[in-house]
Amino acid sequence: MTQPWYLNIAEVPFSRYGSYFAFTYDTKQQLLLRDVHGGDEAPSTLFTMELVKGGQAVPYELEATETRLRIVHKGHPSEYAELCIGDEDIVQGRAQEVGLRLTAVKTRYDSLMPRGTRQWEYHVYAKEIKLMISVLDGAAHVEAPWRMVGNESITLWLNPDEQTCDFAIESYKTVWKKKEYDRYEQACERVDRHYAEWLERMPNVGEQYEPSRRLASYITWSCVVHPEGQLTDYAMYMSKNWMFNIWSWDNCFNALMLSGRDPELAMAQLDLFIHHQDQSGIYADFINDKFLSFNCCKPPIHAWAFKKMRQQHDWFNQPEVVARMYNSLVRATKYWLLYRRTDDSSLPVYTHGNDSGWDNASIFHEGMPVEAPDLTAHLIRQLDILSEMALELQLEVEAAAWKQHADQLYALLMERLYVGGRFVARYQPEDRIIAHQDSLILMLPIVIGYRLPREVTDQLVLGLMERFEAAYGLCTESHASSLYKENGYWLGPIWAPVTYLFIDALQVNGYNEFASRLASKFMKMTLIGGMAENFDPFSGRGLVDPAFTWTSSVFLMLAEQYAAISEANA
């Protein structure tokens, strides 16, 4: 293993690949053992945790590496409890010269019952899971008074005699299978090896960006959960802070990062949505172990993502993989063509800001549905890629049809949404141009720069530099706009996926210097704001959720492509 590197678990949860367990230090200065089953609408806290000495809670310091969490009695380094998640469903721990007290954050029916010598089963109704809590060596004390239909309260005091105590907490759905748990050291060594192998596969960066590399590598590793319920394979969640689901455009950026290192895991991020694809062709908006939602969807960037994945690894070029992806993309594309426009002579629409991924962008402030140029541009590119794939699969008639659809949409885009030398959005019910035209989303037609006249792409690039570029990248609402809002979600802050879409489009269309500059700004920003959900464009401060996977994935991809250039210019 590499040298210890400490996490701030007030921002970045302590977890591991495949696990639904997570430990967090919350705003009330409590250490929490959490479980992320059920998605981000479900309560996640199982227990609050305290360090106890002489029967009283004592102050402690947290030392969290990627694989071990140590809770140290402040000023007494020999008195501590240490935890690791040695297996995906098993937390193992050791308390040394100090007690560890767990207090359940329970609902009415949650109940704890003895199951054997120094062993208790905890039924967690709100999470639809059970926990087996086993003392492997040492002592424990339990207080769980019963009240008709459940325990009135539940407190587990591990190592009350303050000697040494080894214990395990295992999660399962139905029946616990009797087993001999490994010794604590063995469990820790196993997770150490797993993380070391993951870290070894991450891209190498210059010394300047090593802190960001370590953080991004840990976040992507620790945010994966194992197959269960609706999840048919390992899924990289957006976060284990609050947004513990997998969304159907976030998954593309995580899959892209994984594609050159673990192609099967990368493909799994797309297959999770293909498996649940609706008869209409629409992908679910998000999926977790318990349910999936079709209330909204996400923009059609999936063919672009798959094309880039194919460039990263030959595994994706297997005929059966290409054919399977083609068939799914055909269905997804027909959804937009058939169900998101009124007829063949109209443009597709967003029916909610969430459909675009830009939830509260200014073009959505006047009502729905909206004709947005980014949607049509993404769809044109998807149609062009489908035409290429159809030719590869010797489906010449289909290839020609996709090309014709793309040409028709391109003509409509330029006719309806390119006005006065710039792209606009329209409020479809009244067929009028939306007043607010300072959203970065309106600049995304650059993704079809290969179709646009050069003077149009030049004007888009000039607009990006003059109206949107800030100290650390592209504002999502122009910094000159009256609607620009600090910490305004999509009304100003920088977002990783959008940054990557623009950098990729700029590079593909020959604006290499600008692409490199934006990449360098983004990478430097992560040294200030970490791997946050989004960032202040002028200070680089991380905003909202501080531990996001698509931010981590975008950093790792940019670092691989641009870090040497950035280091040379530093």
Arithmetic mean pLDDT: 96
Radius of gyration (Å): 26 Å
| DSSP summary, beta strand count | 31
Largest sheet: 8 strands, antiparallel
Helix content: 25-40%
User: Which residues sit in consecutive blocks of at least 5 with pLDDT less than 50?
Assistant: none
Indicate the CATH class of one domain: Mainly Beta
CA-CA gap between termini: 30 Å
Main sheet: strand order:
5-6-7-8-17-12-11-10
Q: Could you state the oligomeric state of the chains shown?
A: single chain
* CATH architecture classification of one domain: Distorted Sandwich
What would the principal axes of the Cα set say about the shape? elongated
User: Structural class of the secondary elements?
Assistant: alpha+beta
Number of contiguous helices: 13
The CATH topology of one domain corresponds to Beta-galactosidase, Chain A, domain 5
Portion in strands = 15-25%
Protein name: Trehalase
Family: Belongs to the glycosyl hydrolase 63 family.
GO biological process, one term: protein N-linked glycosylation
Pfam families: MGH1-like_GH
Secondary structure layout:
Layout (H helix, E strand, L loop, with lengths): L20 E5 L5 E5 L9 E9 L2 E2 L2 E5 L4 E5 L6 E8 L2 E7 L2 E6 L6 E6 L2 E6 L4 E9 L2 E4 L2 E2 L2 E2 L3 E4 L5 E9 L11 H18 L8 H13 L1 E2 L9 E2 L9 E2 L2 H10 L3 H13 L10 E2 L4 E2 L8 H11 L6 H21 L13 H4 L13 E2 L1 H20 L3 H22 E2 L2 E2 L2 E2 L4 E2 L20 H15 E2 L2 E2 L21 H13 L3 H18 L4 E2 L6 E2 L5 H21 L1
Antiparallel strand pairs: 1-2, 2-3, 3-4, 3-9, 5-6, 6-7, 7-8, 8-17, 9-16, 10-11, 11-12, 12-17, 13-16, 14-15, 18-19, 20-21, 21-22, 23-26, 24-25, 26-27, 28-29, 30-31
